[in-house]
Design a protein that fits this description.
Involved in the regulation of the intracellular balance of NAD and NADP, and is a key enzyme in the biosynthesis of NADP. Catalyzes specifically the phosphorylation on 2'-hydroxyl of the adenosine moiety of NAD to yield NADP. The protein is α+β, with helices and mostly antiparallel strands. The chain contains five helices and 16 strands. It is elongated and about 60 Å long.
């Protein structure tokens, strides 16, 4: 059995760059388009960059933590990499598709593997309505913002905003307000993954709002529609003892 062709991708951190040189020399290196497996060296931020840049290739990604946060990464070890990849368990992620209209009339598109967040741009609170599958569910939400998170992203910004942790494979999304003033007691909702969510910004000139899909920000949006992608998926590979599904489940019991 031939060994898989590996493409090593590294963040700008010095430790990741050193690992890139060492691992490439030991296991060989191929361009991402020619590789069987992408190996991402860095933290969760770099993993998201890798998925955005190379997700369309459809190649599995094995990450190793060489950054500050590594929830989506395996432990970094130089030895036994091929054996680890052969024994790895896959986790399939389906990103969110975001379509946003800006105040200047431009339509923009982006993908998000963690979350799409709408945030106020100034000291003025954001004010918006929320439609689910074409039906208005929140006529007026006032606060710092609101976000939609995937299960994989539910332990990140969503959890910090007191949103629910969603099990991987649950076919759900988290709709979570950020510091809501009105409705004062609304704490968000858990939605079926096929739900189409539309946010309409009210008084966008006085209360400007930005939309961020993972790390891609678009300012002065007036309307944002979010839905789970029907045809885009990525596969992350994890050591069996570092299973992503178990890690997300365990986060619910961390006190």
């Amino acid at each position: 059995m031939t060994s898989p062709r590996l493409a090593f991708l590294a963040s700008s951190a010095e430790s990741a760059q050193q690992a890139l040189v060492t691992l490439s020399a030991r296991y060989g290196h191929h361009p991402p388009a020619d590789a069987d497996i992408l190996v991402a060296l860095g933290g969760d931020g770099f993993m998201l960059q890798t998925l955005h840049r190379h997700g369309q290739l459809g190649k599995p990604v094995f990450g190793m933590k060489l950054g500050t946060v590594g929830f989506m990464m395996n432990h970094h070890r130089e030895e036994g990499l091929l054996e680890r990849i052969a024994a790895a368990e896959p986790a399939t992620l389906r990103p969110l598709e975001m379509t946003a209209q800006t105040e200047s009339g431009i339509e923009v598109h982006s993908l998000a593997y963690n979350e799409v967040s709408l945030l106020r741009q100034t000291r003025q609170a954001a004010q918006m309505s929320i439609d689910l599958n074409g039906q208005t569910r929140v006529e007026e939400m006032i606060g710092d913002g609101v976000l939609v998170a995937t299960p994989a992203g539910s332990t990140a910004y969503n959890f910090s905003a007191h949103g629910p942790i969603l099990p991987l494979g649950s076919n759900t999304l988290a709709l979570t307000p950020i510091a809501p003033y009105r409705p004062r007691r609304w704490r968000g909702a858990i939605l079926k993954s096929g739900t189409e969510i539309t946010f309409r910004v009210m008084d966008a000139h006085k209360r400007p709002v930005s939309a961020t899909a993972d790390s891609h920000e678009f300012r002065d949006v007036t309307e944002v529609t979010i839905r789970e992608s029907c045809d885009r998926t990525v596969r992350l590979l994890f050591d069996p003892e570092h299973n992503l599904e178990e890690r997300i489940f365990s986060e619910q019991f961390v006190v």
